[in-house]
Write a structure and sequence with these properties.
23 strands; eight-stranded mixed barrel; six-stranded antiparallel beta sheet; alpha/beta; 21 helices; disordered C terminus
Length: 588
Amino acid sequence: MKHLDRDTLADSEDLLKVIGKLQLAVAASQMGVWEYDEASNSVHWDDRMLEIYGITDGMNKRPDDFWERHIHPDDIDDMIAYSDECRRENKDFKRDYRIIREDGKVRHIRSLARNISAPGEPSKLVGVNIDVTEDYRRADELKRAQTQLQHDARHDALTGLGNRRALDEVTLEAFSLMGAQDKFCLVLIDLDHFKEVNDSLGHLAGDFILTSVGEILRSTVAKFDTPGTAFRIGGDEFAIFFPTAPGDEDMITLCEALVYLVGAPMTYQGEDCYIGASIGYAFGIGPPKNPSTIFSEADAALYEAKRAGRSGYRAYRREFDIKPAAATNTRRDLLNALSNDEFVCHYQPQFDAETLAIVGAEALVRWNCPQRGLLSPAKFLPAAIEMDLIEDIDDHVFRHVARQQSGWHDEGLEYPTIALNTSANRLRAPEFVPAVDQVLRPHHKIAVELLETAFLDEIDSETQVNLDKIRERGIRIDLDDFGSGHSSVAALQAIKPHQAKIDRSLVAPLEANPRQMMTLRALCRIARLAQAKTVIEGMENGMLLAATRYLDCDVLQGYALQRPMPAADFAALLRRSGTAAPQSISPD
């Protein structure tokens, strides 16, 4: 008997320990526990339940209708109906709803309950309540951030106009609704002498010019009876799309007004800035078989306007399709440059946002042209894209960087990962991975920054296979231009990049508009939720650099830290700095 008593006592102690652990688990989970007793028609709420509802009287026993009194008026009917259904069908209660606490605060509650009954005894309803208000707040915050990002992805941050992605979407939607005889019009505008103003007075003056031109386009188009929409589709390139085309006379009036208004002096900090506008436009009838045709025709008209002396306009005519001999010469020059290894890379360091140690670099291609000297990408990449040579240049850059890293490796120099731009077509190509395998060695540290990433919203099988293969080979995958309109949340989720780079076009407006910080914070948070690091480029001055202290970012890049530099200078910088912070320089 004594032995049995000891066993019974031990079992009781074990049971108490289990109960104690369960109580601790419930307390840690912040769940409120309640029980409805059908026999007494009353409800028992534990202390956590009282706390959730803001009740301070300490009374755990409550009347059976006490729960209903606190349900939010907008949720009460649905919750009562659902509760009755669960009782009637003897099924578990699982539902989120809102309550109004004793102090008037609204909270989101998640209730889970089950009917428990024993033979011959009245049934009891036992449940838990969890305050999930913070979950709803975070979900709302993410939804707002995604909504803002979707807006930003289709709008230029500086001017507020739609961007190239928005233009593509608007035109395609208009074409899908168009009848066979409906006439539409596309206008392309390129600013003349903008680079001179930008170079002489600085980027802020350039931003002022672009913003002013955006306002001119917006207000001028609004004055026409025929509805049209203005867009900023590139650096100093704008467009206007009319889904219903104005008449010929109205188009002439529009173009003359734009040439006059853009050509008038714009005063920035006491300096008169003079630019001009070259305009080309084309009409189309009915939904085009190839939507890009209207863009090509408007672009041909724009080229003729520039060739005629700039600050003028031209309507498209068929004879504009004849390519000038200069185009043939340009293609030949680019092919010779590839053959003669004239494309070189300059490296712009990337820095840890906290320590300012060098943690990476971006390889930026330059053309070391024997006749014209060292040319920036703006001088030759548009032509290379038009002539389908961009993939050849991308391949050349990959080999060039790999060769450079091999040289550094042989010298014993410690170097960071180098990021290279990669176009959509090259990533899709079946020969892409074999070309990488020919070059890649274990000592190479390379990342590919995916360009034109709107196509990654829905990845095709060929792209996915290539992404998986290069990731398996140790090549890091980064997302370029995140949030700028070229990449989206869908692309972020689809490719799961190591890093997402926030484009300079979203950083520059911060100087004039502190609210831009909200957009940058949202982008950093969304990237963080996708487990991607964030790189912020465009650190052009100390003010922008200081602003990054308030952002949850990882890596910084820009002139305020270091300009792009030849390979020899970059290697010398690595030898000098190691992991030390760089000396800040001004972008003169």
